[in-house]
Amino acid sequence: RALHRCRRPGAEMVELPFLPFCALLGALGVVCVAFVSAWCQQWRGGFAWDGSAQMFNWHPVLMVTGMVVLYGAVALVYRLPLSWSGPKLPWKVLHSALALVAFGLTVLGLVAVFNFHNARGTPNMYSLHSWLGLATVLLFSCQWLAVFPSFLLPWPPAWLRALYKPVHVFFGSTILMLAMASCVSGINEKLFFSLKNGTTAYAYLPPEAVFANTLGLLILLFGVLVLWALARPGWKRPEPDSVDTRQVL
Predict the structure, then answer these.
(1) Which pTM does this prediction carry?
(2) Helix 128-147 crosses helix 89-120 at what angle (to 10 degrees)?
(3) What stretches of 85-206 show up as alpha helix (H) in DSSP?
(4) Three-state DSSP class for 86?
């Protein structure tokens, strides 16, 4: 009765369909990758794999693609309505495989920046951006290594999987937030280093600064929308874990 009195007509939120939201989010992810690629091509000299500044340009492209856009897709696999019924094993495999691809792109991005620094004699790991980035990658590595034996192999008991699942979800969101912070701080750091000595200073907002700042906002918008989708109760798998959800490789 008290619950009935508290509810008013029209008080319920209109449920936003997941698939149109997912399509919009996917389009935003493509825009993020297109923006970072265009920035590196238009203003930073394009791409190469030879230790030059053009090799460095692979770093932001691969990090945004792997640690933000693809990782966001990884996080939302179990929000797809198709994953709510039937065996869960194919979705486990898809979730893990996409995470592994994202990790591979991230490793290539690290190789690009370390090779660039080493070729120029630039010190590694001295900035806050580099600390955040490495912490994100290490946490991502630990997450994947913990998930593989916990959910894809038959050894752990069901109670241990149930105990670890909320930890996995929490650190999944944490990794995405750290990736967003790393990308935004990296964009800012690159602009500070680049827009000087013969170029228009960053403080005067030349076109490159406006474009890169917009890229940072798009990355933040994408990440926030992913976190929002993860927090919506109506988009979570509705049924409790069953025998199918504990299916292993």
Answers:
(1) 0.88
(2) 150
(3) 89-120, 128-147, 158-194
(4) coil
